[in-house]
Model the fold of this input.
Amino acid sequence: MSTDPAPPFRPHSSHWGVFSAAMRDGELLVRPHPGDPDPNGIIDNFPAALRHPARIAQPMVRRGWLERGPGPDDRRGRDEFVPMEWNAVLDLLAGELRRVGMRHGAGAVFGGSYGWSSAGRFHHAQSQIHRFLNAAFGGYVASVNSYSSGAASVIVPHVLGNYEDLTKNNVTWDQVAQHSEVVLAFGGMALRNAMVAGGGISEHVERGAMETARARGCEFILVGPLRGDLPEESGAEWIPGIPGTDTALMLALVHTLVAEGRHDQAFLDRYTVGWPVFARYLLGEADGQPKDADWAARITGVPAEQIRALARRLQGRRVLITVAHALQRAEHGEQPVWMGAVLAAVLGQIGLPGGGYGYALGAIGYYGRRANAVPGPTLSQGRNRHGNFIPVARIADMLLNPGTEYRYNGQTRRYPEIRLVYWAGGNPFHHHQDLNRLRQAFARVDTLVVHELAWTATARHADIILPATMTLEREDIGYSSHDPLMVAMHRIVEPFGEARDDYDIFAELSRRLRVDEVFTEGRSSREWLRHLYARTEEALRAQGAPALDFDAFWEAGSLRLPQAPDDGGPWRAFREDPDANPLPTPSGKIEIFSETVAGFGEASCPGHPAWLPPEDVPAPATPLQLIANQPATRLHSQLDFGGHSAAAKHRGREVAMLHPADAEARGIADGDIIRLFNARGACLAAARVSPDIRPGVVQLPTGAWYDPENPEEDRPLCVHGNPNVLTRDVGTSALAQGCTGQLTVVEVERFTGNLPPIRAFEPPSAKPEA
Ligand code: PGD
Done:
């Protein structure tokens, strides 16, 4: 029986939702924010994760690095560790930072350190590490764009305008609920994605908005291989097209609209440039192939009559076109993003309430919401004077090919020679593709430093690993630009083992490097929170809005912020007066043909949207398409050792879905352990046989921790189910060089061998120095 019947629940926040938590008899209790209509179950990963053996208890140094010093070493990831006490390890690391800085300069340090880390705005690991490297070296080699939207964020500014506005200040869920008549969702709008928002989210509204819209008569149509990519509440009609072929389907919809005179020529004339060039391609005048429904049926697997009927249903109605981020996380990912806008323009819907182009609506919880009318707390990262960068998903290329040229966004660039990689708040052995290649890349550097709260594969590959606190173990402020609730994230529990806040680690290192005044500005963490909060408080007071001082905010636990009106953003303004409110594109209009993009001369991304047949297509040895999408029971790989994530696995393995026809052809039954494989690698998973997937497609979500059976092999079997051993490490195109991890090809077989144990959550072997 509990000795403490009324533990104090204190406010906290995470990317997957605002919640409160308390400790009772050594157990963590969590409960969602009472105002959240549809809380995200992922918060249930916290209790079992908090004191799990997978947590890192003390600093460690890889034995080979300690004994032989910095340098390339392919034993990273399978070497033993030596525990160290904090002062000794910080001295050691400060010495290595000095060595690399003095001998090779900032251009030899990769601090791109991509990753979502945790929700608080001060202990945001990316801000902390960038600020530290700017203070220590005056800069570092950075990364640009994200694994989420690498292709979209590069093509959109050339052809549509501001990427942030397109995703964040555009069609809202309120508009969908009230105005949309048809929502045509390419790739769907899966709730598992919208349930997550960087910086925290207090109300999950998407399910309710779709339910309300449907009750009003709105029709939802899902184009994509997975039925579950729109929730049941939407009542969606499912068009299970072949993955990666959406651009062809969109082209055929536009072709039908044009051929039958159903398009809005007045809109195209007034608001777009380049239609005549595109029309020549569409109608086949440029290449002899009209992009009509019969043509598209062969590519997409959707019958021609169904395509034509769908096009006709769109005319004269308030139509919202959405394109999921997932579609651009594939070869030629720029094309569906651009073509979705062309379809919305041809329908004349852009800028209307609940209509037009809601690119990536539903991909993240802060899309489709009103923006806050006051700024939130933001830690300055300082200035990176070095200035070199790579597109984020090109990390293995960079490490493996120093000095080599590559194309990006119209430029020819060169990969730098990196000696030291410093990572905090991310897990490249989760987020990167072709993990066997990534292992080779990490074997090349002199030193890999990682701050982590748990023994991820990235931590296991580090030379110096410093244990970081988990969000529940420190104070912070939760804030997202499109959620009205700013949260005073109270500390719920003392740090695990010897774990320290990233800030405190960097503060100690900066003291050793004599840059602590620049890095800390003399503030403790609490003083920083007070300092960062002041910006919001001042903005509230300037607007005459109710404001609390910091102490009152901390005591209250949260503060509701005023929000900007739901006015359709720049797209509505552009529609109302395109001369007064031009888009920030070269022409000020929607660019259906872009002279800028055409001028780059890339065959992989021509001057107008086009169907570009992919290289990575089913073949006799790999006849199935693999969708490696976002998981539902954790955020990426975070807290994969938590209870909610573990409960969704089968026999400890991640679950892969496949169609009954594909299962039967391979003698696979529901619940069997299967092996997925291709030329790059292989992993195990548990089979879920379901008709909710298109035949010929297998789905295995990301996030199960990489767990190589025999790490000394070149291509070890991942026994846990990490699909990134199978995915391809190639850019979307020479334009954006985005991540293509969403889609590849594989074969699947029933696994009949002895089932290897899961070791991903066991700490690696560590012995004190003799
Ligand atoms: P996370 O698992 O969120 O994945 O990749 P990302 O690297 O962001 O990693 C965050 C890490 O930070 C975790 O290991 C966590 O323990 C650690 N962490 C949390 N809080 C703290 C902290 O305070 N301090 C420190 N030091 N560490 C902390 C996500 C990326 O994966 C993304 S955004 C996308 S969209 C991509 N999606 C796909 C995909 O669709 N398909 C494939 N195949 N691959 C993908 N990879 C990408």
About this structure: Residues 72 and 444 are 5 Å apart (CA to CA).
